[in-house]
Structures are given as C-alpha cells and as structure tokens.
Design goal:
The complex is a heterotrimer of chains A (255), B (358) and C (253). Chain A has a single domain, classed as Rossmann fold (3-Layer(aba) Sandwich), CATH 3.40.50.300. Helix content of chain A is 39%, strand content 24%. A six-stranded mixed beta sheet of chain A has the order 6-7-8-3-9-10, sandwiched between helices. The two termini of chain A are 35 Å apart. In chain B, the strands form two sheets. A two-stranded antiparallel ribbon of chain B has the order 1-2. In chain B, strands 3-4 form a two-stranded antiparallel sheet. The C terminus of chain B is likely disordered. Chain B has a single domain, classed as Arp2/3 complex 21 kDa subunit ARPC3, CATH 1.10.1760. In chain B, helix 2 packs across helix 4, helix 3 crosses helix 6 and helix 7 packs antiparallel against helix 9. Chain C has 253 residues and is mostly helical. Helix content of chain C is 71%, strand content 3%. The chains are: A alpha/beta (255), B mainly alpha (358), C mainly alpha (253). Chains B and C meet through helix 1, helix 2, strand 1, helix 4 and helix 7 of B and helix 3, helix 6, helix 7, helix 9 and helix 10 of C.
Amino acid sequence: MGPVTASLEVSGLAFAYPDGHQALFGVDFTVARGERVALLGPNGAGKTTLVLHLNGILSGGTGTVTVAGLPVGKRHMAEIRRRVGIVFQDPDDQLFMPTVREDVAFGPAAAGLKGAELEPRVRAALDRVGMAGFAERPPHHLSFGQRRRVAVATVLAMEPEILVLDEPSSNLDPASRRELADILRSLDVTVLMVTHDLPYALELCPRSVILSYGTIAADGPTGDLLSDDALMRAHRLELPFGFDPRAAAAARRGM
Amino acid sequence: MHVPDGFFDAPTSAVTGAVAVGALAVSLRGARQEQGGTSRASEAERGGERTAPLAGLVAAFIFAVQMLNFPVAAGTSGHLLGGALAAILVGPFTGVLCVSVVLLMQGILFADGGLTALGVNITDMAIVTTVVAYAVFRGPLKVLPRSRRSVTAASFVAALLSVPAASVAFTLLYAVGGTTDVSIGKVATAMIGVHVLIGVGEAAITALTVGAVIAVRPDLVYGARGMRQGLKLRVNGVLVDAPSAPSAPVAGARASRRAVWATGLVTSLVLAGFVSFYASSDPDGLEKVARDQGIDARTEEHAAAGSPLADYGVEDVSDARLSGGLAGVIGVGTTVAAGSVVFWAVRRRRTSVPSRVR
Amino acid sequence: MGSGHAHRLHRHAHSPVHALPPHTKLAAAFAFVVVMVSTPRAAIWAFALSAVLLAFVAQHARVPAGFLLRRLLIEVPFVAFAVLMPFVAGGERVDVLGLPLSVNGLWGAWNVLAKGTLGVAASVLLAATTELRELLLGLQRLKLPPLLVQIASFMIRYGDVVTDEMRRMRIARESRGFEARGVRHWGVLAKSAGALFIRSYERGERVHLAMVSRGYAGSVPVIDEVTASRAEWSRAFALPLSALVVCLLGWAL
C-alpha cells in the first residue's frame, strides 16, 4: 500500500436483491485516507445496500469495492471485515454478547487475539468512547446513547481502516448526539457516515456524496451541496426548519 | 406445566435424559441445515453460521409469545405452547432446540421444572410436540394444493394433534415411571379430554399465527419453503438467475427427509413402548385431571370455571409454564392415529423418492 | 417471566456461596437433586434433614427465608396435584377425617411434595446466588454444546428486547381502541404474534450480519473461562455429599 492508496474505492457497483428489486445502478466514489465523508440520500436510495457491500456481506452484482488496496471478495474476507468497521443503526443488533466487555472483545477475539493482547485493546476502545466504566454491564442496562457509543467501540476495537456508521445520530437526544459527534471528531480514522441528518453531516464531514436512485448524484463539500436548493429538492433532501447551511458552515469554519 | 423433581422415578428420568441428549445432538446438526437459507440478503449466508443468532431469537420469541394471552371467554384466556408453531416456522430441528433451550433456562433460572426432570420435560414438550407437529404438518401438505391456505390448514391439524400426542407420551411415561400408583386409565381418560380441548386452542392460534406470517414473509415459514418461486437478478438490464434460488428447495428437501427420518425413529421408539415421552406436565392440566377424576361428585360445579380452556390459559401466566404440559393426554386413540399418520408419511416418502434416499 | 427478567431472580450479595465458580454450583445443585430423588420416600426424617442442610446453605448465602419461600410458590400447581393424589390413587384405603384416602396416594403425594420442594429450593438457591452471565459460563464449562450455550445466551440477551416489542405492540393495539375480549379477536392477536415472529427473525438476521461483520465464522470465541480449585469444588459439593450420607442412612435404616 503506497501512501496514495485510498481507504475506500467503489467503482461501477450495481446490485439487485433476489426478489428482483434493484437497489444500486452503478456507484462510483472514493474516500481518501483520513477523510470524513457523509453519504446522504433519501429513504430507499440504496444507502444500506451500499454499506453491506463494503465488507462483502452483499455481493454478486457487478462492479468492485476496494478497501485500502484490497479488493472485497471471498479471498480476503476475514481481513476485509477487520478493516471495515460497520456500526449498524440499531445498537441492539450490534451488541449481542452478555456484557459490554465481551462484546467489544468479540471482533478482536474472532481475529485471534487473546488474553494479554485482547484486554488493552478492549480497554482502549472503551476509553475512546468514554464507556470504560461500563465494561461489566449487560448492554440492555445502558441508555440508547450509551449503547450507540459501545457499538462504536466494538468496531474501534478491531482497529479498522475505515469506520462506516449507519445513521449514527438516529434516536439520540441532543446531548448524546453531541457527545457522539465529539467522539467521532476525536478519532483518527477514515469515516463514512450514512445519514439523512443533514446538520450532523455538515458538522462532522467536510465532504458529502449524495446517493439517489442507486447512483451517486453529487459529490462535493458538504456546505456547497446543502446550499444548492435545486439539488437538494431533486433528491428529496430537506434541511430542518430554520437551518441555514451557509451560516452554519461559516460558523464551523470560524470555530 | 413443567414436571418437578420426584414426579418420575430415577430410571425414567435417566432414560428420558438420554433420549433428550440424543435428540439434541441430532437437532444441533439438523438445525444448521435448516437455517442455511431464508434470508433476503442471501449472499450473507455464506458468511458463517446462522443457527445461533436465529435460534436464539426464535427461542426469545417463543418465550415472549407464551405470555401473549388469548382471551377465551368470561375472564379466562389461553396462550400458545409454541412447539408446533416453532416446528412449522423454523423447522423441526431448530424447533426442538429452541423449545429445549427455553425449558433448560426455565429449569435453571426459574426453578420451573425439576433439574432431574429436564429429560422428561424436554422429551415431552420439546421433542414429542415438535416432531409430531412437523410430521403431521407434512402429511396434509402432500395432498393439498400448494397454497397459503393449505399451509394454514396443515398447521391447524399439526398443532391440534401435537398437544394430545405430548400428553399421551406423558401418560405412557407416567405408566412406566410415575411415582404414584394412579390408575392409568383414569389419567389417560381425563388427560385426553382436557388436552383435546387445549389442542383446539393451540391449533387455532398456531394456524392464525402461521397464516399471519405467511401473508407477509412467506419465505420465513420453513414449512412452506417449497412454495417459493425462482428468483432473478436484474443486473444492468440483463436478467440473471439469482444465485441462491435453486439451492433453497434442495436444502429444504434434504432437511425434511431428515426430519421424517428422525420423526420415524422417534415415533417407533414411542410406539415401541417408551411411548410416553412426553408431556405436558402441565400442572394445571394435571391438576384438572386429578380434580375431575378424583372428585367426581364435585366436578359439575366446576364445569364452567374449570373448563379445560380455562386451564389452558391461566390468566397472566407469565411464563411458559403452561407450555409443556397442558397438552394433556388426549388419548390413546389420538396417539395411535398420530402415529399412523407419521408412519404413513414416512412410508410414502420412502416409496415416492427411493432414489433420493441416501 | 411475565414480570420477567431473569436478573430479578438474582440476589446480589457477597457471600461464600455467591463467590463459588458457577459450574461447581450447577453441578452441586444437580447432584443434590439427584440424591433427593434417590432418597427413599419412607425416610421422612431424611428429607427433614436435607431441608435443614439446604436452609444452612441458604443462610450461608444470605438468601432470606422470605425470598426463598416466595420463590417456592412456583410449585403451587403441583402441590394442588399432590393434594389430589390420595383421592385418585388406587390400592388400600385409610379413613382420614371421614374421607377414604389411598395409602399409596398419600405416600405419592408426600413423595412429590418433598422431593419437588427440595428440588425447587435448590434451583432457587442456585439462581439467587449466580448471575445469568455466570450461569452461561458454567454451562459452557460443563461442556454443554457451544451452539446450545450460544442459543441460550442469545435468548437471554434478546428476551427483554422481544418482550418489549410485544409490549409496545399491545400498547399500540390498545391505543387504537382494541381490546381482546374473546375468541373473535384471536385473529388480531395472532397477527401480532406473527409480526413479533417476523421482527424477531429479522433481528436474528441482522444480529448475524453484525456478527459476520466482525469476523464471526461459526464459533464465538471463548473470551472468559471460569476455573475452580479443588477447594472450591469440595466446598460446593459439601451439600450434595452430606445429602448423600443422609440418603444412604435413609436406605440403611
């Protein structure tokens, strides 16, 4: 891997489900190492389908996905799944082990880590999301926001090349939402954030791509995209009432 | 309800324990096959073993659905026992696993069902109900046209017979290893009556539930897998066969053949003299039977309040407890009938597909 | 379970019994119950003695008598059954307060009551002193097939989640004025059950995806392993062994 290798390259990706419904119609985009990119799009645009291609859970259509130079495919599946950390929308789906600590340890342990190596990895991941004090708790005793943070930790523990978040801000109260944003900003990792929470995208991701009808409809600085009213309307993206992306972007730059 | 310690003698407990272990071993293998392919995201299946999460969630579902009260009348209500439902929705092997795990957890965590009686309880409530239900379920499906309504009808019959079958097994077990000398004729007669009625309730609820699932996600109903159409992929305007479509029916056929094999084995054991494995050790059902039998003179005044369906659904039974047991003994007649259906199904299978038998 | 969370059964405390490794407790509870079942029913004093042994352990575990007795209520349906046995069973009869009762039935009732009660008490003690998570580890350590342990562990993890979904569906039904009053409403309830199944199954699929995404390939890595020293084993087995002595005395005398 040379320094120029992108974290993620998606090219010509098309896919239809077995029931005949086609969700992706040729998706192309690249995420450079260290970038934070938002993947925006209305419901049903194919966002989740695209995400499931990134670590090879879905495949069988046309096109390629490459993670840090490694093509996604059967040959490198274990390595790909270690490098692509997906945080699913419902933390209850993601936290399936009896305690937080075991859940965070699951990925690294599945990759073969044991005892002395495993423990610090788990602790570090929990520290990064501020959940170190909850290691022995069962996940269902945590608040929703805490569960979402632990879900992020389960993926961080695998030291992924790219962190993929599916609707990270959904169902969070404003404080939890901000805490998660702080955590994500503090991470030194490539992030692809799938969301229709446009202010959140603007806050966290300098760049956005819009997925609409199964193709990439736009790709550029988040502030520019959100300020383009015609583009937004064409793809059923709406800003919250009273939200001005230009002012917000300016405020953010001034920070 | 679940049999406590001391209800059956030690040899019976040990033998049923061995039967339970054997059946679980077979089911663990069988379940892997059953859970091979029902996902919409069919590609995901290649990723690994699906049995644990799916069976775990189904067990949680069975656990929860046993708390769902179905009002009967006048303040009484019933709830699902779930063995037949599990067998039809996720397949007999997974069904046996799920119900067994529920029973195991109830025994350990809630002291519901004795630890030494686990063998009896599992044999009874997990194995006999599930296996009989599935075997019976396959029968009508062979004759009826392939439609949703047929699946619902077959579910009804399957659940209807599974409950009495379990109670018959229980009665037989009791005859072999019960610790008290109650006339087996008395137990059988009363249990049969009670559990036939319980079976009717179970059948109605099971059929309605299967019908509800099949209307929305027919692909999730294990027993109806043969009904799936072949799927196509449209890739850049070109139609391609979906990769997973052909494999599913094959897996289903193989698994069902094994199911029939297992059913036949269990049934023959059952009919051979071990018959009793089951049952509905439902305390409520048992209690009812005892009451009806023992205090004949007073039975009448109980007729309304103590109707079998009342037992079936004790108000707010928070746990699954009714599950196993209630099904009481429907009666030797029913057992023989169920057994015959199974054998008929097995023989038919064998003769109709001789080349495919391994 | 209606109220039902497994963890409510657990009584958090720090006692020598709580501290024992879970698999030793599981094995000891099982051995104790086996011994109970093997004790001759005619040796009434033997059951009394075993009950005293159990009470001693309960006291040692700081499980209050009230808690234990309340938990024993789960046995009530069987008590009712046992009470009926003397009326139903055949054989020689004896008059008690004017009622002709079967001698055999009386013994049978006593047998079920004594053994059942002691069995339930032992299980309750086990559940009260052992956390869920530990129980699963203990089962794993006792060589229950890993797949079975995983299924149990998923069931426990998602039991609350599924029950909660069911509760929300009920609230949704009731909020729209639906109240199930009789058989006519079974269709609606069954649709809820069907929907619950679909949700549970689909969640199972999503959980599987989440597992696969983190490198799951068929076996859950063993992260925690419990071990027990010889001393811990002998402490755990003090109960079943003393019960065994009582049982043997029961046969001998």
